[in-house]
Amino acid sequence: MSEIIDVSTLRSWLIRFAGDVEEHAAGLTELDSAIGDADHGSNLTRGMKAVVTMLADEDTAPESIGAILKQTGMTLVSTVGGASGPLYGTFFLRMAAKVGDCDTLGPESVAHAFRAGLEGVQARGKAVAGDKTMLDALIPATDALEAELGAGKPFAAAIRAAADAAEAGRDATTPMLARKGRASYLGERSVGHQDPGATSAALLVRAAATTLIDGEDGK
Ligand code: ADP
Ligand code: MG
User: Fold this and answer.
1) How far apart are CA 73 and CA 68, in angstroms?
2) What percent of the chain is modeled with pLDDT above 90?
3) Contact partners, residue 49, CB within 8 Å, separation at least 6
4) At 56, phi and psi to the nearest 5?
5) 3-state SS string for the chain
6) For ligand 1, what atom is nearest to the CA of residue 82?
7) pTM here?
8) Which of 105, 125, 135, 198 is 20 to 30 A removed from 208 (C-alpha atoms)?
């Protein structure tokens, strides 16, 4: 795989995530029906379909990495709704602001972008690790990405470690008590259910790893 993310890799990541969200929509909604209002799968499917449509428009699709990330964030904010729309939107908008107007990203820049996106979600949603939210996947993923790159690991290994950490973080939400969002209204009854937002966030990071490692065609 390449050590560099270019525009086509970024587009492939987003398109893959959209496909994964659609494939897992029923499962995400089922998780949200246990501790929320049963709309997370449909919310995110609607938003990512709008992102794919935005990317497919030959006349208006943004062309730089920063512009694609920014337009993705704005599309998610305006189409997903619920708590997760503004939060996922913020994630991409902050990544966009961090990378600026560039055509390629090296591994360190990807890690910096993830950290900026994560900090945006934290600032906007005021949740912390252990509150049973998407942060419980995004925080360990970002930590792992930074740690692996800091240890000199190749990009592929680092992004795979990030996806593994996101999935472990997702699984760790099951015994947690929800302290933010709709699930927090349930109090103790939120315990024993996997968080839908952590589940979709793990899909996002896994889609990045799969795209980077397998290449644009998934081969
Ligand atoms: P809503 O709860 O408004 O119906 P969704 O169902 O689309 O929105 O998304 C729910 C997910 O959003 C939760 O599973 C959780 O991961 C995430 N979430 C909710 N509130 C916050 C918050 N304050 N910070 C981070 N993530 C949050
Ligand atoms: Mg919901």
Assistant:
1) 9
2) 91
3) 18, 22
4) -80, -15
5) CCCCEEHHHHHHHHHHHHHHHHHCHHHHHHHHHHHCCCCHHHHHHHHHHHHHHHHHCCCCCCCCHHHHHHHHHHHHHHHCCCCHHHHHHHHHHHHHHHHCCCCEECHHHHHHHHHHHHHHHHHHHCCCCCCCCCHHHHHHHHHHHHHHHHCCCCHHHHHHHHHHHHHHHHHHCCCCCCCCCHHHHHHHHHCCCCCHHHHHHHHHHHHHHHHHHHCCCCC
6) 3
7) 0.96
8) 125
Residue type for position 46:
R
61: alpha, beta or left? (left if phi > 0; alpha if psi -120 to 50): beta
Atom of ligand 1 nearest to the CA of 125: 23
pLDDT of 141-157, one tens digit each? 999 999 999 999 999 99
Give yes or no for residue 89 CB within 6 A of ligand 1: no
**Span from the CA of 83 to the centroid of ligand 1 (angstroms):** 5
C-beta atoms surrounding 68 within 10 Å: 23
Q: Is 176 left (phi over 0), alpha (psi -120 to 50) or beta?
A: beta
